[in-house]
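User: Please run a holo structure prediction.
Assistant: Happy to. Please share the sequence and the ligand.
User: Here you go; the ligand is arginine.
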Amino acid sequence: KPMRLWGGRFEGGPADALTRLSVSVQFDWRLAPYDLLASRAHARVLHRAGLLSEDELDRMIGALDDLERACKAGEFRPTVADEDVHTALERGLLERLGTLGGKLRAGRSRNDQVATDLRLYLRDHVRTIVSRLVELETALMAQAEEHAETAAPGMTHLQHAQPVSFGHQLLAHVHAFARDIDRLRDWDRRAAVCPLGSGALAGSSLPLDPQAVARELGFDSAAPNSMDAVSDRDFAAEFLFCAAMVGVHLSRLGEEIVLWASQEFRWIEMDDAYSTGSSIMPQKKNPDVAELARGKSGRLIGNLMSLLTTLKGLPQTYNRDLQEDKEPVFDTVDTLLLVLPAVAGLVSTMRVNTAKLAESAPDGFALATDLAELLVRKGIAFREAHEAVGHLVVWCQVNDKTFDVLTDDELIKVSPHFTPDVRDVLNVAGALASRKAHGGTAPDRVREQLASLRDDVDDQ
Ligand code: ARG
């Protein structure tokens, strides 16, 4: 007869269809280490409350330690008959302790237990995710350092706009990931509240000490409202948002890498270790890592929508719907831990085609703004300068010329403002260096930006 935590008032067993619907151990088993951690803290609080003798506590802790060892060694496994991780672990405890094993459940419900386990699991895994994000930032920053002076076409609307430092563009992505890290750190402050002691919903009549349990488990405080504590999944939804935002940032970087690696751009060459081939076309080298980063953002966003939809409309307090919180959370953690190292590897091993970037940086009359701003410095209204440079662009297009090959006569013919000295600003290096105010693409500013980002990473 399968062991259940709630057999007493039932005659006969549950229907197979119910069991199959209700069982969660196939996915919540990964909470086992956290459930055991919380169990040890709970055993100690029962002891302090006078509900477990010294000897009983020792045997309880010994059995929990042994159970943990057996779980790690794969000797103890959940069976299909265990409804969830809590049921499986109580079975393991009973196998080791007999009746004494049944004492641990006093003052505790799966409702406060599962909410505690999931918070412990997430706080732990968010630390790992942050480390992976830092590794990706580090990879982007190393390339940015290499390419602070590398001129590249800067784009808006995917059209050549103004030349930029390629390092500046890479650091733009680092800032996005830095905000993600900041969000995850801030998330932890709100996640650091411990539900244990809330029981099913109303707290416990036993003299437990939720604040002490909270401290022992590394939380900042115990939940101030037992009803909120067992039904609150804000921490899970907020984590899924933070992760979805990481996904969006990975997707945008992935999209750029796909473009950069294309024949039309040829800005980068991917390392063989981070590209894939085709089963039919022998010449192919495909950016699958970048595409999967882009593609998997879909499930990260979906997981957030899934949980928000589960939560909306739930009355207080615990409802079984809440069991649906785990798979989206686990899937998001797994997805990030798969994608982040692959993208970091792709970025750190890609070779940047500086010659191609430099050659195309001025394309599309990308220095037009520099020309207009030169006229402004000479006292001409920007409106007029904009107009004059626009005419020059059209003249060049009609005559199939670029700015850099124009003669003095040709310049003057289009507008009397275009005296020979305008040529001084018609070079890409000058254009980059001139954007030297805070936040601009001048290589010196890019290096400062990099230093400050590195300081932030070191502080983390
Ligand atoms: N597996 C359940 C969950 O994930 C554990 C809590 C079950 N509580 C209950 N009263 N049925 O939410």
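The pocket of arginine is lined by residues 24, 28, 84, 110-111, 114, 318, 320, 322-323 (CB under 6 Å).
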